[in-house]
Amino acid sequence: MSKIAIFPGSFDPFTKGHEDVVLRGLKIFDELIIGIGLNSKKQRYFEKELISEKIAEAFSSHSQVQVKIFKGLTAEFAKENNANFILRGLRNTTDFEFENTISQINRDLWEGLETVFLITSPEYASISSTVIREIHKFDRNVDKYLPYKL
Ligand code: ADP
127 CA to middle of ligand 1, Å? Predict the structure, then answer.
């Protein structure tokens, strides 16, 4: 049976840290679906359609990678895509505290849904979407943090 994973996130924007998680995830999974999750409470900074296009462009040579936009529960999105795995990245203890709770809940929502965590590569550990948005707001170039040009 082929191993399908979803990699859900806000990806506002999708960074080189995220790219690294996907490329490493491809060594584990046969298919990876990057899911841009829409959170009704969070206003996006970068348009979801733009980011979706850019991610697709960045992985155009990887036929095992797809990009989708989804609303609602991550567990439902996984189920709809026949994915038994959720892929997430871990940078620090703050990420861990959050991920710990969420992964338990997701397994509760859909038995057998396992979350697989990849510890960030040191060179990308300090890259966060929040900081990139901040730099971008002040008109500074953020290209070096992204796997595509905005
Ligand atoms: P969310 O809002 O769902 O946390 P993000 O887009 O911020 O979505 O992140 C998606 C996933 O990528 C999370 O698991 C997060 O911990 C991970 N991640 C974010 N930045 C990095 C990075 N620089 N290195 C490794 N993982 C990262």
Answer: 9
- CA-atom Rg of the chain in angstroms: 15
* Closest ligand 1 atom to Cα of 117: 14
What is the tens place of the pLDDT at every residue in 30-82? 999 999 999 877 799 999 999 999 999 999 999 999 999 999 999 999 999 99
Q: Please state, in angstroms and rounded to a whole number, the distance separating the CA atoms of residues 49 and 79.
A: 23
Provide the 3-class DSSP secondary structure of residue 121.
coil
Indicate the Cα dihedral angle 137, 138, 142, 146, nearest 10°: -10
Q: Is the overall model pTM greater than 0.90, yes or no?
A: yes
